[in-house]
Amino acid sequence: MIGRLNHVAIAVRDIAQAAEVYRDILGARVSEVVPQPEHGVSTVFITLPNAKIELLEPLGAGSPIEKFLERNPDGGIHHLCYEVDDIQAARERLKATGARVLGDGEPKIGAHGKPVLFLHPKDFCGTLVEIEQA
Ligand code: CO
Predict the structure, then answer these.
(1) Are 63 and 40 in contact, with CB atoms under 8 Å apart?
(2) For FRET with 98, which of 10, 14, 60, 118 sits at 20 to 30 Å CA-CA?
């Protein structure tokens, strides 16, 4: 069912510093900082030949990555995003297996303007999983 790895998201406290690490030390192509108030994060997109890395920094009160950063003060891998051809079909299949879809279970428009769902880490080897309509 899942297709390509779309991105690995890394939560950080200081996105400018993290972008510098990827640009200056790792030599990656790094975007400007993109505030995404509707998602409670600021984002930097890093384009690799085979996938993307997204750096996430909390934006505003009640950011969804705030608790993660309290537990991981140095930052860390926050989620993986896999592409699917049909997000509604994927959702039905996941629900039929008993996997927990987070939120109200309806796809939301994600950081790339495409429908996404998040899946409970306890059902996926301790990793928060995002699926995105390809
Ligand atoms: Co993501």
Answers:
(1) yes
(2) 10
Q: Tell me the pTM.
A: 0.94
Domain extent at residue 37: 2-133
Based on the residue annotation, tell me whether 66 is a catalytic residue of this protein. Answer: no
Per annotation, catalytic residue among 54, 57, 83, 130: 130
Q: What is the CATH number of the domain that holds 50?
A: 3.10.180.10
Residues around the ion ligand 1 (C-beta < 5 A) = 9, 81, 130
Tokens of 10: 């890394």
- Using CA atoms, how far apart are residues 132 and 107, in angstroms rounded to an integer? 9
Count of all residues that appear for the chain in the document? 134
